[in-house]
Amino acid sequence: MKKVLLILVIVCAANIAFSQSHDSLKLVQESTNVLDAIKRIKIQGLLQTQFQTFGPDAEEINNRVTLRRARLKVSYSNAISQFVFQFHVTEKNVGADEIYILLTEPWTKTVSLTAGIFNRPFGNEIAYSSTLLESDERARVIKTLFPDEKDLGAMISFHPRQSSPFNFLWLDAGVFNGTGPSHEDFDKRKNFIGHIYTKKSILANQINLGLGISWYKGGFSNQRRTHFEWNNGFVPLLNDSLALSQQDLKGLDAQVSVKWVWGLTKLRFEYISGKQAGTSFSSKTPGTAPADKKGIPLPSFIRNCEGGYAILIHEITKAKLQLVFKYDWYDPNIRLSGAAIGQLDYTGAADILYRNYGMGVNYLFNNNLRFLAYYNVVKNEKTSLSWFATDLKDNTITLRLQYAF
Question: What's the pTM?
Answer without folding.
Answer: 0.90
